[in-house]
Amino acid sequence: MNVVILGCGRVGSTLARLMYKDGHAVTIVDLQSEAFRRLGTKFKGQRIVGNGIDEDVLRRAGIEQADIFVAVSQGDNRNIMAAQIARHVFGVEKVIARIYDPIRADRYRQLGIVTLCTTTIASGLIRDFAGNGEWGLAKDYSQEYITLSA
Amino acid sequence: MYVIIVGGGNVGYYLAKQLVSAKHEVLLLEKDRARYRTISEELGEVVMQGDGCEVAQQTEAGFGRADAVVAVTGSDDDNLVVCQMAKLEHNVPRTISRVNDPRNEKLFHKLGVDATVSSTKIIYNLIEQEVGGGEMIPLAALNRGNIEIVEVEIGARSPVLDKEIRSLALPPEALIISVIRNGHAILPAADTAFTIGDSVVALVNADREHELRHVFSDGV
User: Fold this and answer.
1) What is the pTM of this model?
2) Topology of the domain comprising B2-123
């Protein structure tokens, strides 16, 4: 698979290394070249320095041939915009965005982007584990948050 | 009219002042505390400190009854999300976004923003008008941007007006592939002459683009 990842933080760099190890063609994009240090020496995928909401940068990262696009940069809005560009401009089949804000994660999920809200996942898992010593399912928690704040 | 402005930079600040003096009801949302203090000293209760992308703060600011939401922060991604959430959550009838990268205008319209303003593009167009037009709009890139398909509009002051294609000093590695006239695409021949309003579509090697631009504009 051709994988394009936006954001080379802890999650982005780990995902890049995992998928590269699995044999996928991985390209990772970050605003700062220093971020690529997290990739270590074994990762031989492509590294692109640039702004992930710039279509030219995404094109350089090979988004036109991408099977999957993952936005895991630090900014929720950057991830949201990049994911929508991947979906609506380049027609990437699978688009995933990490969004910290549970409300935004829910709304953009309704707009057809796969969103991953690590805020509700982590807090939900911990709450369950604290209660009964068992790990719940990550996907169950986001809906609960929505009812919580309603 | 109730207008909510998100982003208290220079654009937001002067816009708020102007709307207030035109007797509109205005709320200016600024995320940064220090900046908020500075502008609220002058504008008073018109300014609220908060993140215009957060639904809870949108609700508090009264997005639900706003006639228009204007996003003028310096980040295109923030402006987009402000407008989209305003529509999705609060059904705001009119959302207006500043875009810093002019190429985002088309994208924002597609994603549901009602109107966009790009100062970059406005200034660029003014300069182009000064030098006689010939703005070249990239339509597509082939071979990863090595070869481009571009479009040029023929204006009243265009140097190629009424000229036939055979008389143009086209650069090598440039090819006029179509002339769009009154909504119909014409296959160009050597004796095709340009008239006002024509859109010329050309294939050009990226390195030669500035030479092609020169043929269609009389300035610089």
Assistant:
1) 0.74
2) Rossmann fold (3.40.50)
